[in-house]
């Protein structure tokens, strides 16, 4: 049976509990989703009734259903959240409580919960400091049981800390930034700014959640701060963060947000412009390519992985497999308003006579998404027009595609070259003291 026939711009997800269907829907301008329900024997939209009031700062994604509870998973103020509806109490609306998490920034996800008649909700959790773990949460008693945590050899989490700060964009929008650093780094110890690696993506509504990444320890143990800018164009702050403020004719918000995050970190004493590196891949490569044209003075080094930098040439060629579908993200350049707007930020088309930061660019000969000639063309234009002589490197992998080497150890070797480039440019060669276990 059809719950509700398809309609333009209407999204909904359904779960069954008791005699009702529980529905997450964007009806009525509720872009981030509202929870409603309908009787099983009258499931059409006319019968939908509100379960919980709509909250603009809370995005509802999916539900996990148990005999006495419904766990609604989503995001609140940019961070993952789990909202527990206590169905067994018989209250209407049901009593609600949210899972609390111990760190300022983190990632979590619902694990496989295939047993209906249980009060135990299993989820995965990590943070920039805490390795991946699996936890059982008793929905009735609210007790947690740690089942497993990934072992990271020679890693001492007590040396590190993470937090979330907010930069103010030019239009007043608050943009979250996730930070992780050693407590004994210059910034962590309150002695002054530290070198920093700032990462961003900001496209397709993708959320870059602050999870554990053992590779960043190489930066942290050399006294660096690692930061993620959760800029518009991503989905961290809800659907409108992407759909209304981060695509089409609002795409420049992605780039200006990133610059505003960098400026905030400099003014806040987290880092300095001569010790700030930035990185992004694919559409994130477009991001860093655009910002080094807009504000090259903010950055000391840039690593652009398989960067989508020749926007106009690619988007004007519908014979390229992904071009037509990508018009849904950037706009169709056959329309003047989109053509002119895309031209205003396309990295290849905005290279100029200025001092650029040190740049390392990677490409794959067999990349079907971003052809190798895009970064090659970008490098050639920078070399021709720049007014300084900082490092400008192009590394083309002759056997890989869009996602770098598929072999694990080869992938690590490729990453080590990028890390070495950043550490050299920022002057972060020496390790901080480390209390190795005996």
What does this structure look like?
The chain has 438 residues and is of the alpha+beta class. It contains 9 helices and 20 strands. It has helices spanning 217-220, 239-243, 252-267, 283-294, 311-315, 323-330, 336-343, 373-385, 408-426; strands at residues 12-17, 20-25, 34-39, 49-50, 58-65, 69-76, 79-86, 95-98, 107-110, 120-126, 133-138, 144-149, 160-168, 174-182, 196-199, 225-229, 276-281, 301-305, 358-364, 392-397. It has an 8-stranded mixed beta sheet with strand order 13-14-16-15-17-18-19-20, sandwiched between helices. A hairpin with a 3-residue loop joins β5 and β6 (69-76). The mean pLDDT is 95.
Give keywords.
about 450 residues, alpha+beta, 8-stranded mixed β-sheet, 4-stranded antiparallel β-sheet, 20 strands, about 20% helix
- The gross shape turns out to be globular
- Class from helix and strand fractions: alpha+beta
Strand content: 25-35%
- Stretches where pLDDT falls below 50 for ≥5 residues? none
Helix content: 10-25%
Report the end-to-end length measured between terminal Cα atoms.
65 Å
Supply the number of helical segments: 9
Order of helices and strands: EEEEEEEEEEEEEEEHEHHEHEHHHEHEH
Report on the biggest sheet: 8 strands, mixed
| Beta-strand segment tally | 20
Radius of gyration: 24 Å
Mean pLDDT equals 95
Reading side by side through the largest sheet, how are the strands ordered? Answer: 13-14-16-15-17-18-19-20
